[in-house]
Backbone:
């Protein structure tokens, strides 16, 4: 009697252009957004990935962001199980809260020099402890690593950054020395122990 081998085929990737495409898929298949975890392909014509996987809390699939994309605001916000290497294209300018509350996320990230807004980019990434290279043109790092309780990597704050408010608040493991350039206007509110901070800003109160 021959052995029967049960073969399973991988689901065909879902082609998406926006968060709405995922919502529509979930409705058609009678699943909740939080249970969505299907392989995806982002359309090559997409320029905006804002909120694309927002609140897909079970989503953990490889994602290739098209080179045409210019904004990734809240792209993976609340994707609690997402932990995939993610390459950010060099046309992107906005990464606000891109990985916000991705509690399992722990990958090296290179932020291209086109990005100016990194505010809250990793806020709530409680597993993060890999290197992050910040864009040379970054201006806003507000709450960038807020509540990253395991994060303890060297961070270079580029000259030209203006805001670092609450950048390291609740980063209880963070012990690295930081140099703050003179372009920063809110250095006293960065949220780390003073002995680890070299403040060079010229703003009032520094």
Residues:
């Amino acid at each position: 009697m021959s052995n029967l081998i049960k073969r399973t085929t991988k689901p065909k990737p879902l082609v998406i252009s926006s968060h709405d495409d995922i919502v529509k898929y979930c409705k058609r298949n009678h699943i909740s957004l939080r249970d969505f975890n299907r392989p995806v392909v982002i359309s090559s014509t997409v320029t905006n990935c804002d909120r694309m996987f927002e609140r897909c809390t079970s989503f953990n699939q490889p994602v290739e962001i098209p080179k045409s994309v210019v904004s990734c605001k809240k792209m993976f916000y609340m994707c609690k199980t997402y932990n995939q290497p993610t390459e950010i294209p060099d046309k992107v300018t906005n990464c606000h809260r891109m990985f916000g509350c991705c509690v399992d996320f722990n990958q090296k990230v290179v932020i291209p020099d086109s990005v100016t807004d990194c505010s809250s980019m990793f806020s709530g990434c409680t597993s993060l402890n890999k290197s992050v290279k910040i864009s040379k043109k970054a201006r806003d790092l507000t709450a960038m690593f807020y509540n990253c309780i395991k994060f303890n990597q060297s961070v270079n704050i580029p000259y030209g950054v203006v805001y670092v408010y609450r950048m390291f608040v609740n980063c209880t493991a963070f012990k690295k020395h930081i140099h703050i350039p003179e372009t920063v206007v809110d250095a006293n509110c960065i949220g780390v122990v003073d002995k680890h901070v070299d403040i060079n800003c010229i703003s009032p109160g520094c």
The chain has one helix and six strands. The helical segments are 19-28. The chain has a mean pLDDT of 91. The two ends are 82 Å apart (CA to CA).
